[in-house]
Design goal:
Two copies of one chain form a homodimer.
Chain A (H helix, E strand, L loop, with lengths): L4 E3 H7 L3 H21 L6 E4 L1 H10 L6 H16 L2 E2 L5 E2 L1 E7 L9 E5 L5 H9 L2 H19 L4 H15 L9 H19 L7 H15 L3 H9 L8 E7 L10 E6 L11 E6 L3 H6 L5 E2 L3 H4 L1 H18 L3 E8 L2 E9 L4 H13 L5 H7 L6 H4 L2 E2 L1 H6 L2 E4 L1 E4 L2 E7 L2 H9 L4 E5 L7 H6 L2 E4 L7 H9 L2 E4 L5 E3 L4 E4 L2 E4 L3 E5 L4 E4 L4 E2 L5 H13 L3 E5 L3 H9 L5 E5 L9 H10 L3 H26 L4 E4 L13 H11 L3 H11 L11 H6 L1 H18 L3 E5 L5 H19 L5 E6 L2 H5 L1 H5 L4 E4 L1 H9 L7 H9 L16 H15 L4 E4 L7 H9 L4 E4 L4 H14 L2
Parallel strand pairs in A: 3-4, 16-17, 17-18, 18-19, 26-27, 26-33, 27-28, 28-29, 29-30, 30-31, 31-32, 32-33
Antiparallel strand pairs in A: 1-2, 2-7, 5-6, 5-7, 8-9, 8-11, 9-10, 11-12, 13-25, 14-24, 15-19, 16-23, 20-21, 21-22, 23-24
Helix pairs in contact in A: 1-2, 5-6, 6-8, 7-8, 14-15, 14-21, 15-21, 21-36, 22-24, 23-24, 24-28, 28-29, 35-36
Chain lengths: 868, 868
Amino acid sequence: MKKYVYSFEEGKEEIQDLKKRVEILGGKGANLAEMSGMGVPVPPGFTISTEACHEFSKSKEYPEGMQDQVDEQLKKLEENMGKKLGDTEDPLLVSVRSGAAKSMPGMMDTVLNLGLNDVSVEGLSKKTENPRFAWDAYRRFIQMFGDVVMGVAHSKFEEVLEDIKNTKGVENDTELDTEDLKNVVERYKKVVKEAKGEDFPQEPKIQLQKSIEAVFGSWSNPRAIAYRRINEITGLLGTAVNVQTMVFGNMGDTSGTGVAFTRNPSTGESKIYGEFLMNAQGEDVVAGIRTPKPITELEQVMPDCYKQFIDIANNLEAHYKDMQDMEFTIQEGKLFFLQTRTGKRTATAAVKIAVDMVEENLIDKETAVMRVEPNALDQLLHPTLDLIAKEKATILAKGLPASPGAAVGQVVFSAEDADKEAKEGKDVILVRIETSPEDIEGMHAAKGILTARGGMTSHAAVVARGMGKCCVAGCGDIKINEKEKIFAVDDITVKEGDYISLDGSTGEVIQGELPTKDPKLAGNFETLMEWADSLRTLNIRTNADTPKDASTAIKFGAEGIGLCRTEHMFFEGERIKAVREMILSEELEGRKKALDKLLPYQKEDFVGLFKAMGERPVTIRLLDPPLHEFLPQEEKDIQEISEDMNVPVEKLKQKISDLHEFNPMLGHRGCRLGISYPEITEMQAKAICQAAKETGAIPEIMIPLVGNVKEFEDQKAVVKKACEDILADKPYKIGTMIEVPRGALTADEIAEHADFFSFGTNDLTQMTCGFSRDDAGKFLKEYQEKGIYEKDPFQALDQDGVGQLVKMAAEKGKKVKPDLKLGICGEHGGEPSSIEFCHKVGLSYVSCSPFRIPIARLAAAQAAISSR
Amino acid sequence: MKKYVYSFEEGKEEIQDLKKRVEILGGKGANLAEMSGMGVPVPPGFTISTEACHEFSKSKEYPEGMQDQVDEQLKKLEENMGKKLGDTEDPLLVSVRSGAAKSMPGMMDTVLNLGLNDVSVEGLSKKTENPRFAWDAYRRFIQMFGDVVMGVAHSKFEEVLEDIKNTKGVENDTELDTEDLKNVVERYKKVVKEAKGEDFPQEPKIQLQKSIEAVFGSWSNPRAIAYRRINEITGLLGTAVNVQTMVFGNMGDTSGTGVAFTRNPSTGESKIYGEFLMNAQGEDVVAGIRTPKPITELEQVMPDCYKQFIDIANNLEAHYKDMQDMEFTIQEGKLFFLQTRTGKRTATAAVKIAVDMVEENLIDKETAVMRVEPNALDQLLHPTLDLIAKEKATILAKGLPASPGAAVGQVVFSAEDADKEAKEGKDVILVRIETSPEDIEGMHAAKGILTARGGMTSHAAVVARGMGKCCVAGCGDIKINEKEKIFAVDDITVKEGDYISLDGSTGEVIQGELPTKDPKLAGNFETLMEWADSLRTLNIRTNADTPKDASTAIKFGAEGIGLCRTEHMFFEGERIKAVREMILSEELEGRKKALDKLLPYQKEDFVGLFKAMGERPVTIRLLDPPLHEFLPQEEKDIQEISEDMNVPVEKLKQKISDLHEFNPMLGHRGCRLGISYPEITEMQAKAICQAAKETGAIPEIMIPLVGNVKEFEDQKAVVKKACEDILADKPYKIGTMIEVPRGALTADEIAEHADFFSFGTNDLTQMTCGFSRDDAGKFLKEYQEKGIYEKDPFQALDQDGVGQLVKMAAEKGKKVKPDLKLGICGEHGGEPSSIEFCHKVGLSYVSCSPFRIPIARLAAAQAAISSR
């Protein structure tokens, strides 16, 4: 017979392996077991395993033998406590709590005081000689059980309570006497009967059974599922159920309850932090009717208890070697620990605690590095909205948290307006249905960007992250009218010039002008980063197109540029004219003339980049997007450009129509452009080489979208000729993006000719999964909800699918050329789980946007430690 | 020292392996060697190998040792013939001919009479006692050498000849006497000097060297390269050069020349076929000034020669076991064979000859099956344009030969017009910039389809091939003005109602109404197909959506339906209204109501198909295209539909805008639709099952675009529920398309749940290569010219890239489920090289459009034979 139920003592003894114990007993159960074993005063009880929940989820029945085991453990508990569940003299009361291997607020939390009924309430009353306490406990039990187990709306109970208080003319629950509470109990039972058509169960074993089933059931409720999806929690069996003897903090002045952290979870300060209330139950601390007192004041109130508490807290931290979050209750002078767990903390606190604990010789540097969630660092690198102000403000809508940080400003609806208003010194938020490369300057000028369409890797999102600029994307709830320069959310209309605030870390769009807080990179941060750098083997590069981005990236620790996109350079000022002139030329000569105009600009771009990067390597990708992106789409712009360039509108329209593509993503772009128009490749190669000659840099020239070795050979020949003419024997490298599945499949052929591969996992994901990142927004959320993809494959590399191709290409490439340099420059280069994958498959570096570099450094160190 | 030059005798002796001999000596050289060895009277000579050409192409120099070997062979030839090159008494004259391993009209062909110069012409004159012959030979030599070796325009020589004839007042060359010809020679030499700035070379060894270099050079000329690309000739080293003693058919009445085939190359009739001219050179036969006589008449003129000729011809055919194409010359009563090679033949002849030869016990059935080029069968299955009429007509433009056959009719510019005019009994050609699913009915009604945009696998092309209807696609030279209902090619304008003719096998668009010829499937065809069927192991299915297509396919030998697309069914008549109603419903209930209207139609569709197919398996693919394809795009249509459906224009436009996709190919389609709207899958599954129940069919339900096993599981559950409700325990299958790279990569996971895989190689090619078939037209032609892809990957499966995924998926699938049924239903299912690949990787069947089934049957048989 499989064992599903463990007393707290058995848990510790029978499941030695801590990881396994957490898996089977859940975090809470494992900690209760551990504490019992350590001699910490814990109210006795038992835990029903996550495996039982797993079985229950499948069959909707208790697994075989579980009921007997529960009965047996209950019997032992009754013997141990000398009390019996439902007893008319001295009833045993228990709590029932859920507890998965990872903390999950989405699930059913707690039922307290279980075991009370119309008879045992009298027993409790007699035994405690406190009828009011007994009836209050009973009414609390009915309310909790009714709400969380039976599904009766919480408000229905509140209405009864309000009604009785009003009738009596009092304000607080505490002012109700025993008779009032008996009345409450009667009416609560009616509420249950009316709402559910059945009586509140009097039989304690039924109460227990229903509570256990409710905990099991809550594992699969939509909130819990959504929580797991959002927090990327996968691979768990289910939740455990903890049944524990009740202790009461509300049994008089020598009773009390509280919560505390061994260190400050907000700042990380190494000092006990928490609060308590005397003569109160845990829920009273949360309810906010009485103001809890700082934990340190307990010393005055109950010095012995306080001393015992502090000793145990210190022991627990030393035992777990991490900051603990504890719940305790004092029942008539006796201290009980109800729970201890690793405390949640802010990023600031996480960094400080990790560094402090190394200095305290509690943990080593590797452990410290493993302690900080890389993504949490994001909080430290961007300004944030003032949380208190945010709580009071109106959240207009919620989009995708496309680029973190906060932005506050006046709304504008076009890139030109953004540019204009910003030049007048205003803070503006650029609001667009979607952005396109033409909007780059406006995006630069804006404090933040809000789009109605597009996913986490839409143009707006990618560019904003590159700029380290706050962006909320794909906010479908806002209806933009660009002509009238307004947007609406339900019945609220926001006009041009109105203030809004964006939270790029949550995706929230907030009405009005909220205060923000600037990030502070403390010394601890630097220390942790240094440790990470000493542990990682992956190099960290950045995706940067401008000297400014490059400098930011270096500040954050970039060791090179992994991807410099050259197309953004084509949009600035006079350049776009030359680009359009080139596109509109039917003859080679005309194109060359236009390209000659671009050459000096391009060269200066690269000189700037090379100078900013110093000795660090710089990989420059040749022109990638289809040419139609450089032509206007709007009638108005076509007219304007027609006049500007002195080209008939008809001709312009004809060209736009000729260049139209059904699927631009799969169109005439990347190296295909260079093969059709070698003169473009030639100009870019020349500009790179001239800049390299001037600065002494060793350029890495990257040919995009290669799917066939012959494409690479063709373009390599063009680049090589240009380079040899200018650089003669000076070193330079020519490599390629692996971003087309066929490129990965034939990587061995390509490796024979290429100096390096850089995995363009954005495009590789699109083509391998067969969905465009701009269009997938329509179904990817649903896909995640249904568990088809556990994570958004545009954010976290799809290791099962796309990863196969990355691995295959890396292996095929290295087989042909063992010293082939391998990197990744897709969005995934800054995402921790993807970085771990890159480490495992043997890449040399990851490249990400400047603001994600610290995250990447930490994730790379964690990957190195984990794979030891 | 490597051997580059072989006398004809050495060729046969030293290179025993025939394949290798052809590779090294070229087809012509190998045959001359073979004939020499067989004792056929061949003028002696030698062959310079293709390897020499290969070396020359790289270094632009003769490979080491070659010059010496040429000199040596020439010396032996002079000794053998008792004549010397350039001799003043009795000069040796030679011909120089190119000859690659495959016949290639694009290269330099022939230089005759080499060895003549101002001195040796006199020697020839004396020796033959025929000064006119000698001087005529000399002027012919200068003209040929000047043209093909030195690159002097042919017309310049013709001008001189015309001038001299005019001056003398004669019409034919034959009327010029010796003095006239001396004059011609003088002026020809001046032409050369003026055009090239150098003298016509007098030194015979220089003449020979330059001729050899010219042949080598012609291997790389653009015409030859284009020819190889168009005819998919790859893997050859270069061309060989044949240097052969001249014999003359123009040395009097006992001399003559001719060409002949051992069987009729047009009909296949087993009877000598050819023509000859007495006292003439080969070029005279071609020039058409004198009318050649049928070869049989030679019996009267020179009975001994004829008998010898017939004996040798029979010997050659018996030796090569194939129909021979021979050139011969009779010099003063002595017969010489200049060449023999496998004769080109029409498809009709190929089939008849193959069948006849089996009956004559000359070859076995396997050989017969290997003898017919599968693609050539296409000619036999479609009507064709009358070739003689076509030669006289104006070719307006040339597009892609998207669907073979011929079509003649009056031009219309919209699907509605096509439908209307066709109903009035007119033959119409539908001319569109591109077609969309809305045009289906008009395409059905038209005799042929002409589009300005789109490739070989564009909508128009795919649908037309499916219908067996002539289509010329992507004809960029025609400028269509749909509003004014005209199209223009250069300065020719074609109006609505004008007649045009299409040749779907060549892509030609011809002005006017040409006569056509209907196909005749003779008994030989049936016989060959039976043999093929007995030899092949692959099953052949068809892609068919209607009972009509299904019946056609069965007539051609289809053994099942591999792909029934259901989306076409959504466009007919009332259905499209219900489809739009579904799309416009925001609520599930509304969608279900609309789907309920579609259900009976769908069921009847499937009943029709199942009935047409009888016991044969039918694979039905669930809805695949994105929903926006079912909504109108044109303002006019939006207005109309808005009124028709009583839906506000604004709402319609909003929905169209909501459904807009950046890359529809990678958008919300395939199983993604079914996952978002399970009710669509449910309706289709119900319709299929109801039809199966009614007809007793065992349906194979195919879920499209699966890239993730969980997508498949999700949709399988929906289908299964619908099936079980209707079919109870009756058998049915649920499988998937493998068309997304990720689907192939994770085929092992998918195979656990799927009954079958069908490779959708159209989409798989698009995603693996990263180019959309609708957009790739812009660069794929250039890619083929540059050799980046040898063949259009949308026509012939890209075995190196896409093929890897097919092979991988087949292997992964079979590993998990050894009896997994595997098929292919992309366009490649009807293409011979792809069929061979499918055979090799172990697929169970290929599926193609009805009209390609015979091709597939033959190709499958050839694959089975080749892989033995």
